[in-house]
């Protein structure tokens, strides 16, 4: 392993080891408490532009397999682990994590105090950082970071969104056949507006009984309304994605045009915040990105959902009614809009979640 040098926005300078690509990268530092599925995190478009600091101590043990990728490539700026293991043991694994990161040109950082980095983020908030196997000077790293564009200024949707519409043809993973279920014919079709959608979410929409067509982020609202009025589609889904929702003015305007038509809608992740802004609600940045697994309360039951968000919607009981809240602080994170066929949550529902069935019942 070669040395890698790290400079944080608050002036902290660190040295660690590299097990991924040899390069220089800039991104926003966050921490993630997930204990499994690191390849899902690495390939999730919602994590584009982030340095993900895993709080789990051991990383690499289960290797990488292409079947669990959430998109066609790695999306993060880099990953950080306390201890990396190149040897892996999993019957589904195709390669080591280090091999995958090198193929994808992504930084892998290890032999560093991840607890310290987590504490920094918790106390001071998520911040920009630069890491390099090429530049060793603190001053030079600081200069490069100061000259770079901030995470909140980057339009990730333009890069992440599909360029051409397509029909998603797989459902959830079948452990018996060791492949994804094939999509069944359905008389209920939805358009998924792609802000940076992940594959597993599309799979669950299909598994719930929907026909799913994924369309580019810049699709005209007039086209969607016409297809709905012509009974070609029965609903619209606003996908997850990366970046600051407040800068996506065109997407917000497009969604605002859909709201008045009362087309059934379901929004998750970034889509949740874009929908809120289209309803003239305020969306404010949080100090720390809530990344990883969180217990969520709904109907007196608790589920564990994966969340990756740096924003919060102002609560307004006149516009929506709460359906889900965080178990530990009662923060509302999912709701149904009043007098509208609209469901919205800042997390991606897990497999078999009742939310999918609730949306299916709204689709015409």
UniProtKB/TrEMBL annotation:
Keywords: Isomerase, Ligase. GO terms for molecular function: carbamoyl-phosphate synthase (glutamine-hydrolyzing) activity; isomerase activity. Its EC number is 6.3.5.5. Residues 2-132 form the Carbamoyl-phosphate synthase small subunit N-terminal domain. SUPFAM superfamilies: Carbamoyl phosphate synthetase, small subunit N-terminal domain, Class I glutamine amidotransferase-like. InterPro entries: CarbamoylP_synth_ssu_N, CarbP_synth_ssu_N_sf, Class_I_gatase-like, GATASE. It is an enzyme of class 6 (ligase). This is Carbamoyl-phosphate synthase small chain. The gene is carA.
């Amino acid at each position: 392993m070669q040395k890698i040098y790290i400079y944080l926005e608050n002036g902290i300078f660190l040295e660690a080891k590299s097990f991924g690509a040899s390069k220089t990268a800039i991104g926003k530092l966050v921490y993630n408490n997930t204990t499994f599925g690191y390849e899902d995190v690495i390939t999730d478009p919602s994590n584009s532009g982030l340095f993900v600091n895993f709080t789990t101590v051991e990383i690499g043990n289960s290797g990488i397999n292409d079947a669990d990728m959430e998109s066609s490539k790695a999306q993060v700026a880099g990953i950080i682990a306390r201890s990396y293991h190149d040897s892996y043991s999993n019957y589904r694994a195709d390669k080591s994590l280090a091999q995958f990161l090198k193929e994808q040109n992504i930084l892998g950082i290890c032999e560093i105090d991840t607890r310290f980095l987590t504490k920094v983020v918790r106390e001071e908030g998520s911040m920009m950082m630069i890491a390099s196997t090429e530049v060793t000077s603190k001053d030079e790293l600081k200069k490069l970071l100061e000259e770079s564009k901030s995470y909140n200024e980057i339009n990730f949707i333009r890069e992440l969104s599909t360029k051409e519409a397509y029909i998603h043809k797989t459902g959830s993973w079948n452990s018996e056949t060791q492949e994804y279920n094939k999509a069944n014919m359905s008389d209920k079709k939805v358009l998924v507006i792609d802000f940076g959608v992940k594959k597993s979410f599309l799979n669950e929409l299909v598994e719930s009984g929907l026909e799913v067509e994924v369309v580019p982020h810049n699709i005209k609202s007039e086209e969607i309304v016409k297809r709905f009025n012509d009974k070609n589609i029965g609903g619209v889904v606003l996908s997850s994605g990366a970046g600051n929702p407040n800068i996506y003015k065109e997407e917000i305007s497009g969604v605002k045009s859909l709201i008045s038509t009362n087309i059934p809608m379901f929004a998750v992740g970034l889509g949740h915040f874009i929908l809120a802004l289209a309803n003239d609600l305020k969306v404010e940045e949080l100090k720390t990105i809530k990344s990883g697994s969180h217990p969520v309360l709904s109907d007196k039951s608790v589920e564990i959902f994966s969340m990756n968000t740096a924003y919060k919607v102002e609560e307004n009981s006149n516009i929506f009614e709460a359906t889900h809240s965080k178990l530990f602080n009662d923060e509302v994170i999912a709701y149904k809009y009043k007098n509208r066929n609209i469901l919205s949550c800042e997390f991606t529902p897990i497999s078999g979640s009742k939310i999918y069935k609730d949306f299916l019942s709204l689709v015409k």
